[in-house]
Each structure stands twice: as structure tokens, then as C-alpha cells.
Amino acid sequence: MSAHGTRRALPNGARLVVVPPRPGVVAATVAVPLAGVTLETAACAPAVAARWAAELRAAARAEDAVVRVDPVSTPDAAGFTVEALDPALLAAVPRWFRDAAAALPDPLAPPADPRAPADDRWSHPVRRALFGSGHRYGLTPADRARAAQRPGGLRRAARALAAVPPVLAAQAEGTHVDVLAAGLAALDHRGPDAGAGPPAPRPAATEQRAAAYYVLGLPGVALGAPTKCAHHVAWSLLGGREGMLDRSLRLDGGLTYSLAAFSRELAEGGYAVVYAACAPGTAGEVADRVQAVLDAARGGVPAHLVRGAAERLVVAHHAALETGRGVTERAARYEAAGLSPADLVAYPSTVDQVTAEEVAAALTTATVLSGIR
């Protein structure tokens, strides 16, 4: 097995990503890609993932298997992660998934807490404006709630998602790999239902409300884009404690109660967000300062600041991969986007090579696309 992991494409369309296990808790993540499904199916996906996780917990308990199961939902995939101390238990994950999908009751009621996608915090108004209401990236919590409550909607979505060949990323070795592959190959999938294509470019979202919030959205890049790491470094410079925006808005101006700035890369596109909570009447000054910081960063950033931002990203990357679930959830996300485990492993070295010129170019591209000049 490669130190980075291996990939197998199975005859039924399912994909297996195997990464080397570490001592202690091991994990496996099942992710059903949402590319190509209908908008209704994508809207119901977090609720379906929560029901799958509940059924898997019940199946594991019935077999006296000691595991932890949590739903996983992103704008690109829905599924779950299983963690166990005994690596042999992960071999049962494909079978548990098959049984869970078949065991969902009819009618299917929404779960009490369907765990929204990880990218929902603050960002859904931005994604709605950037990608529109016709793409899954533009779905809001209200859209998901309506879809899950629609008669038969959750059942239709569960059936549609069960028909999509899944990605399984697991920490495994030896005979456990062959058992996982055989179990995954035995699943019956017919392919996704017809859905929306990639989003069309749209202007960025700039939102100022009377409730003293300022939200700025900028188009970003997809997970597989060659400029992804330059965008990461750029937004690491802008956001974070004592980042360029923090220094201008909080330390120098005392304008914000809270502040966040980050970029997100998805399979079919990306976005960046500046979010600020500020005192009534100061949103205009906040907007001016954000624009001034973006203009300054476009004009050039000192190399030592770029280096520091890259180092912070590398440290955060390694910290995120310290757990089994951190590894398998990211490996599944990369595979769903058509990227290999090697791309995930190469992230630190790629980030480390980003130059100040590439950072300035990334921010210039974003502001040109957004039309905020």
C-alpha cells in the first residue's frame, strides 16, 4: 500500500479509498456524492444522512459492536463516519450501510437534529447569491426544512441517494481491505437521478442589515483548482486573530464584536466570506475598511507575512489529520471531487511554495470576478 493510500474503482461505480491505519481509534467514512442529484434530493441529504447514522448505530448495537457513528454532510456529499477501536469492525460498514438504506421506514420522518452541512455557518446567504437558488450550493436551511417536510420528499431523496455509487474511505490494511472492497462491490447502485449542472458565475453578495451585520462574499475556486493554495494563504492573511482584517477592524478601529474571514473550496466551485458583527451605524465604515484591506493586499503582501500564513495552514492541516475521522472524512471529500489521497498529502508542500505574487493574483481575481472595484 502507498504511504498516501490507495484507490479502487469497483464495477458497480463505488470507489474505495484506503489509507494506512494508526494505533488507537480507526475510522471509515461513507460519502454519497451529490453531483448530479436533483435539488430536492440535495436539500434532503443532511436529514437522510442523519437517519442512516441512526440506523447504523442500531445495527451495530444489535451485533454488540462498540462503534461511534456520526452523520457527515457537506454541500458535495452526505454520509456518515464510523469510529472503532477494533479495525475488524470497519469491515462491516458496507453491510451496515446496505441494511440501513433498506431499513428506513415508510413514511420517513425527518430526524430531530439533522446536522446541517459544515459550510452553513454564516455562509448560506453568500452561497445563495453566488450560486443561485437552482444549484445545491445555494440551498439555505429554510430550503432544507421545507424539502424534508414535503410529503414523500424525504423518502424520494433516500431512495435516490441509495442509488448513487458511494465513496468509502477507510483506515485498513491486509485482508480487511479485500473484505471492504467485496462488501462495497456487493452494493446495488443505479446511478444518480438527473440534476443541476455546475453553477454559472454570479456576482458576489454584499449584504448590510439594520441588525448591524456586514457580510461580503467573493467567488473562489474549486477544490481541484491549481490556485487553491494561493487562495488559502490569501485568506489566512486576511482572516484569523490579528490577520489584516482583524488589525484594521478590531485593533485599529474597534468596530467589530466578532469577525470571520475564510475561503471554502467545493467540488464544483468555491467562495470566500468576510463576516462582521458591528455596532449600529458602523457598517459603512466596516465596508470601507474591508475594501481598503483588500486593495492593500492586492497591491502586494510582504513575503514574511505570506510565509507565516502558510506555516499556520500547514500546522492546522497536520492537526486536522491527527484523528482517524479527520483522515477518512477528508479523503472521502477529495475522492468525491475526483482527487486522490496523494493530493491531500501534498497540501503542505504546495502551500509552502505559494509566493507573495500568487497571493496578490488570487485576491485580484476574486475582486475582479465579484465586481466590487
TrEMBL record:
Bilayer-crossing regions? none
The source's domain of life comes to Bacteria
User: Boundaries of each Peptidase M16 C-terminal domain copy?
Assistant: 210-309
Q: Which residues form a coiled coil?
A: none
Classification lineage: Bacteria, Bacillati, Actinomycetota, Actinomycetes, Micromonosporales
- GO terms of molecular function: metal ion binding
Instruction: Please identify the protein, giving its name as recorded.
Output: Peptidase M16 C-terminal domain-containing protein
